[in-house]
Amino acid sequence: MSFSLALVGRPNVGKSTLFNRLVGRRLALVDDQPGVTRDLREGEAKLGDLRFTVIDTAGLEEATDESLQGRMRKLTERAVDMADVCLFMVDGRAGVLPADEVFAEILRKRAKHVILAVNKAEGQAGESGFLEAYGLGIGEPLRLSAEHGEGMPDLYEALKPLAEVFDLRSAEEQPEVDVELTEEEQELGEGEDIGGASRDFTLDKPLQIAVVGRPNAGKSTLINKLLGEDRLLTGPEAGITRDSISVTMTWNGTPVRVFDTAGMRKKAKVQEKLEKLSVADGLRAVKFAEVVVVLLDVSIPFEQQDLRIADLAEREGRAVVIAVNKWDEEKDKSNKAKELREEFARLLPQLRGAQLVTVSAMTGKNLDKLQEAILNAHAIWNRRVSTSRLNSWLGAMTQAHPPPAPGGRRIKLRYMTQVKARPPQFVVMCSHPDELNDSYKRYLINGLREDFDMPGTPIRLFFRSQADKNPYKNKTKSTPSRLRKHLGKDRADAPKVKKQRPPKR
């Protein structure tokens, strides 16, 4: 999805009808009664060759208290703040009302991009409302009919240039992952000027770091300490941060872009729509990061949700650093550090060897060690190993512990090469790859970590068979040989008929 589009406006102006048309299904309830939509609903929209996320919102009401209408308005304002583009819809038959003018002023101040659309504008009934919309001062309005699909080409033309801008922005922020290695890089590995260390970080392409964790772990406080100013709102209450906010800065000479994310709780505890949006935004930030810092609270480390967050970063293929915050409050530091490392090795074996750093976001203690751990994790994440070294290593590993022999057939591991970096991905050509068990795969992955100094980074190991390249596989003789034909015997591929013995006398 290149960008997000929020549909906003008064109740009963046709937002849900347009939402259903854009997603191609009747996902949102539609009725003539106003106020049917109360929550935010997201969908994958398709308009021509554009693909984007569309958000259906509750109708804007002139209520700011804690009533139902007031809470619905807060939710809609939240969607306006998060969306890349807002489509402000007015009713062409009812015309521009005073409430529309109030909401237009709000959108002019809060929204990043606003497109004005006059819905129900088909025929002469919507002509006056369409002309009145010019007075809102948000630009030239679009004439739509969500019910009948009129005006969709005009909406496409309005969104197309914005989509190109967002695609360009997304390409700039998207980290280089799953980098395919050339044949020269596979052969040479890290030698002879071939990479394997961190790339050169610039202000245009900084090192991208996502700070994730449970609520109230100190993520915003940590980023404020790095910035040297209180840029992000902090406090003792859990769940203050709701946006995934990116901050670009220079950290001890290294240009970095740090994503501050909302705290992630267990899915069963996430009930509010605001929190669901915030968690989804945090998950997107992980995909934009190169290194993920999982921030733990020293008083309750390695909770179930912490393990899920770390496992998510590993499955996304990102370099991971574990940081234990509020270390200044810990009394028995030496025993606690030993206990943390033991729990980490036991609970997160898939991140075996990843660096664990104790920090204090409040006092700034050990932030230099955290930076060193992040740069080291990024360098390991980018590691390349030559094919010759890998095959020598594979021979030694199979000699020490031969592969299993299911059904008496020994699985042969023929050769190995690295095909991608960020994270490192290896392919082993072998016989019967589907019969190789998981324990032997873990044995090889752990060996790669130890022998090639790749602790903590996600390692992808795939096994492939060369049998598919055999041109004679599953083929039988289709014609008899000349000798069999001369002797008058049957074709080689003909079914054999069992000869009957003569009866005994």
Helix content: 25-40%
The number of helical runs is 14
Largest sheet: 6 strands, mixed
C-alpha-based Rg, rounded: 31 Å
Output the helix-strand order: EHEEHEHEHEHEHEHEEHEHEHEHHEEHEH
Overall SS class: alpha/beta
Q: What would your notes on this structure say?
A:
The chain is α/β, with parallel strands linked by helices and 505 residues long. Helices cover 34% and strands 19% of the residues. The chain has a 6-stranded mixed beta sheet, sandwiched between helices. The protein has a 6-stranded mixed beta sheet with strand order 9-10-8-11-12-13, with helices on both faces. Strands 7-14-15-16 form a 4-stranded mixed beta sheet, covered by helices on one side. Strand 2 (41-47) and strand 3 (50-56) form a beta hairpin. The N and C termini lie far apart (87 Å).
Annotate the secondary structure layout.
Elements: E1 4-9, H1 15-23, E2 41-47, E3 50-56, H2 68-82, E4 85-91, H3 98-110, E5 114-119, H4 127-132, E6 142-143, H5 152-173, E7 179-180, H6 183-188, E8 207-213, H7 219-227, E9 245-251, E10 254-260, H8 273-288, E11 291-297, H9 304-315, E12 319-325, H10 333-347, E13 356-358, H11 367-381, H12 387-400, E14 413-421, E15 425-430, H13 438-451, E16 460-465, H14 482-487
Parallel strand pairs: 1-3, 1-4, 4-5, 5-6, 8-10, 8-11, 11-12, 12-13, 15-16
Antiparallel strand pairs: 2-3, 7-14, 9-10, 14-15
